[in-house]
Amino acid sequence: MLPMAPKGRSGAHPRRNMKRIAIANHKGGVGKSGLSVCLAGALRDEGRRVLVVDLDQQATATEWLGLRHPGELVDEDAFGARLLETLACGQPLEALAHPSISGVDVIPCGSGFAPFERQAACQIASERLLERALDGSTAKWDYVLLDCPPSLGLVTVNALVAADLLLVPVEPKSASRTPILTVLRLAQEVQSLINPRLELLGIVASRFQPRLQHRQVEAWLRAHFHEQVFDTVVRESTHVSESHAFQKPVTQYLSASNGAADYQALCREMLDRLEGRVQGVREVRIHG
Which CATH number goes with the domain that contains 114? Predict the structure, then answer.
């Protein structure tokens, strides 16, 4: 059983004030990077200091926050290679942080990060490389969002070991049921064996469309996971896609759009859970 983050307190380790949130799902295309970037932008708009750590060699978050333009492969390779070297050498991660025009800091990634799993597997305590790199950094951010790849390999395990909280985006399709159960089981295992402070921040229905299948799967999520599913639903939005092209979070690209409204509402609901305006606690029970 993976505990849900108690509403009204942070799940952060007492050694630091910043909250580390792993954003993960076994399934691709559910909006992990969009959630990482747009939630980071909404948090920044609320006055929080935010760092996005791009752990996906596809580098969507890196591109979205303006660290490279589409088709620029040289910087992409360099970014990924620097991240790989920093983790392998146990150096503080903050040296890789870049500011963005949105006010969100980002540690970029790229295809040069691809050998991480093969190389890290040869190291002792390879599942703690990211944790050590973050522990060596100063707590200059309020929130660190770890944008995971669409797999449950060593990169995602590193994120879960380093994190205080897990946030799971789910596109409400029938094919999404098994992946969410898989990522929650992995999180339970990490919490039980390696990182006892890991808690579930919540599950977010993302890329939602008003069609029967989406409504049915959303109902299944709420029936199985109850209060662990955020009330806020992030709707499918062309403005979110456009904000990627303009390399800004949607809240800053077009603040009056439905996409911006959804991320602003999700941000407020998340802050309610973490910063004391709502009380209550539940635990996750995984149903097969």
Answer: 3.40.50.300
